[in-house]
Structures are given as structure tokens and as C-alpha cells.
Amino acid sequence: MTLIKSISGIRGTIGGKVSENLTPIDAVKFASAYGTWLKQRREKENYRVVVGRDARISGEMIQNLVMNTLVGLGIHVIDLGLSTTPTVEVAVPMEHADGGIILTASHNPKQWNALKLLNEKGEFLDAENGAKILEIADSDSMLFSDVDSLGKITKNEAYIDMHIDEVLKMNLVNRKAIENANFKVVVDGVNSTGGIAIPLLLDRLGVHGVKLFCEPNGHFPHNPEPLKEHLTDLSEAVVKERADFGIVVDPDVDRLAFIDENGEMFGEEYTLVACADYVLSKTPGNTVSNMSSTRALRDITEKHHGQYQASAVGEVNVVNLMKKTNAVIGGEGNGGIIYPELHYGRDALVGVALFLSLLAEKKMSVSELKASYPIYYMSKKKIQLTPQLDVDTILDTMESNYNHENISTIDGVKIDFADSWVHLRKSNTEPIIRIYTEAPSQESANNLADRFIAEIKAVANI
To answer: Is 407 exposed, middle or buried (0-12, 13-18, 19+ CB in 10 A)?
Structure first.
């Protein structure tokens, strides 16, 4: 079916032909390339890599292949077992490791899996190092260890608890206010590791958690991308349980979205807006999100007298701009919160703790909180790519057609109109063109997206 090789990792569907899918041979090949890259970076006696996985059905198979490949390269492995992406990111520096690998395909359906690759800081690789690994994978430069120099695997399944410990130590987590608020929250863990981590965090914070799809068996009960159309069960459960709100995460727990007390979406775009509002009220500063994210973050940042900047899409790009601008918080409009006090990675556990603190201090409902923010509406659509579709030509044509508008070509083509915008880009993780729009009403956002889809089809003759 599909194998996508990019700087952010190797992602594909399980089964099928080698080099066309994520087969065992492909898993070994790219784990070998990553391990070789690590050893080429620094000559030392011992190398250590942290490895964890979400609850996908293929996860144990792929993890065992990856770990034993690293062992064959003479690299010691710290096996976190069932884990989350941010937990692995936190564990890498705590273990003084040389890198980390997370086996997860994020929001993709269960037939997908991936190797997400981290450096010694527990952060995603930049383009240069990602390209080096892909180059090594296509070469014959991988050299494996002799029998006396093999690595070892050490299990440590305590890291979700240790990650929660670190979240609770954050200065802005108001544990007393949260406990006094006596919140009741429904959690949709999409039958992956969020079903382990989020209820544990809520329990530590004194929040009454109601579990929904929290069995980490990898059988996702709905499309695992946390969008409104996939969350009807959660919406109904929040109303039935008379809960204060609902929480949903993606399978590897780096994306976070909320449902209000009426069963309505808070909006994944507003996860970052709310958390930033809270952080900026305590520690004024700058913010960053990617250019496919809502303008509401800019508005909230300026309200707190900070500066907002937009990066290209991709966590590593957001992180790099956050470091450059000394941003106090940042992330992505897909519900990804990056809070540098703990680490430079999207972290749903951090987002939950900050959101609860905000809600407890403001003493208002989730729907009231949403109403207090600048309201924009987004449309997120896509066009499936085919071999006949020349994406670069399409984007060049769209840029030329709108060269009288405010245009950015940092990542695809973003066109800023006075009261709306459209962002056209080729996805790094799926064979699609994404068409994101934002406008003052849902109808306007949808119409703008449909207009550009029609224009793209006209350019492509499809």
C-alpha cells in the first residue's frame, strides 16, 4: 500500500511488498540506518537508545524488530514498552541516552505504523539529520557488531508514572485549585496508551475520571484523529455523565482535544489558545504555532503584550522557531501543546494539566471559556494525490494567481486575506494535498476551501 520516508520518520502500512510498505525488512533497514547515524555522530564506548510504542496491533512486532536491530549494532536499549510519544521524549534526557525511537503512526488508522526518530535531547531530528539517515538506509555503510559487542535490552515500564511526576512539578500546575474544583471528566483513550496515561494523571490531580475506550489493545473504536465527526460517543458520554468536560487524545498522546459540558467540541485549535492564555497570564512572552493554525493564538498573545510568529508545518519547525524567539509556549493547531519548561515536544499530559489549572482558577464552564476567546472557524479538507498530479506546478500556479495578496511560501502556499486565509500544502505523512482555511464563519471557511479545491482541480485537469 504505502511507505512514506521523510525527515520525521518512516511511516507505512503493515504487510505487503518490501519497500512499498512497512514490512519487517523495512523496519530493520531503517532502524539500522538510525543506529548507524547515531554511532557516526559521536565515537564513544556505549550507546543508549530509548524505545517505546503506542498500543497498535503491530507495535510489539515492530518494536522487537527495531530493538534487536539496535542490539545487533552494539547499542543498548531502554525498553519502555507501552508508552506515549512525549513520555519517550522526556525519558531520553533522563536516561542520558543518545536518542529515542517511538513506534507509532500518530492519528493514522490501525493498519499504519511508523518509526519516529529522536536526538539526544528527546527532540525530533532536523531536515539535515533526517536526510542523512535516509541516505544511510540506501547505502551499504551499515556495520554490525561482533558477538562480544552486542547491545542489551533493559526494561523500564515506570516512565509514564515518572512523566506524570515531571508534569506535576511544573510551576504553573495549580494542584490545589484543581482538586478543590472537584472536576468530573470523561476520557476517550482511543484504546491506546492515552487510556493508561491520562486517567493516571487525572487521578493524581484529584479529578474524577470516567474511562471510555481506555483499553490499550490497538483496536481503535473510531477514526483515531481527534476531530468532531469521530467523537460522537465521547460527546454523548459527557452529557450522560453530567461531566464538566471530555478529553480525547490520539493514539500516541501528543494531540489533545476537549468536549465541553454540553457535548460540543471546544475545538482542537483552541487547545493551544486556552493553554497559552493561561501560561501568558502568569509568564508573559512570545508564542509560536505553525501557519496552518488559528489566528486566535496571535490575538491572545497580543492581548498579553507578546509577539506571535508562525513556522512551517512540522513539530521540528515549530520548536526551532520557539527557541529562536524564546517563546514561552507554542505548538500546533491540531491540539499539540509544546511547553519548554518540561520539554520541546507536543505533550497532551502537559496540556491537560495546564487546561485544568486554567479552568479551576477561572471558575467557569468550558463553554463559557470558549466564548471568551476570539472565534474563528476552520475548514480542513484534502485532495488525494495520484501519480498524475504535479503538486509543485499546482502550488506555483496558485501563487502566481494570487500574487497580489499577502503570500507566504515557507511551506506550500499560504494566502492571507483581510478576514480569512487559505493554506495549501503537500502532507509530509500522507499522500494528500491539505487545504486549510479559516474565516469568521463556518460557511465562509467551507466555501473558501471548496473554491480552492475547484481551482486546484481546474489547474490539474481532474
So the answer is: middle
CB within 8 A of 244, min separation 6: which ones? 183, 184, 185, 261, 359, 365, 366
Report how far residue 408's alpha carbon sits from residue 413's, in angstroms, rounded to the nearest whole number: 6
* Sign of the C-alpha dihedral computed for residues 114, 88, 57 and 247 taken in this order: negative
Helix (H) or strand (E) holding 416: strand 413-416
Report pLDDT digits (tens) over 225-282. 888 889 999 999 999 999 999 999 999 999 999 999 999 999 999 999 999 999 999 9
Q: Which domain holds residue 259?
A: 163-371
The answer on 362 and 408 residing in a single domain is no
What's the pLDDT score for residue 352? 98
329: CATH: 3.40.120.10
Residue-level pLDDT at 169: 98
Residue 443 confidence (pLDDT) above 70: yes
Domain count, the chain: 3
Residues 314 and 213 occupy one common structural domain? yes
- Say if residue 236 is in the same domain as residue 88: no
Determine whether 106 is an active site residue. Answer: yes
For position 431, what pLDDT does the model report? 66
**Contact predicate 383/456, CB 8 Å:** yes
282 and 418 in a common domain: no
Residue from 106, 289, 293, 311 carrying the catalytic annotation: 106
Q: Which of 108, 140, 157 is the last residue of a domain?
A: 157
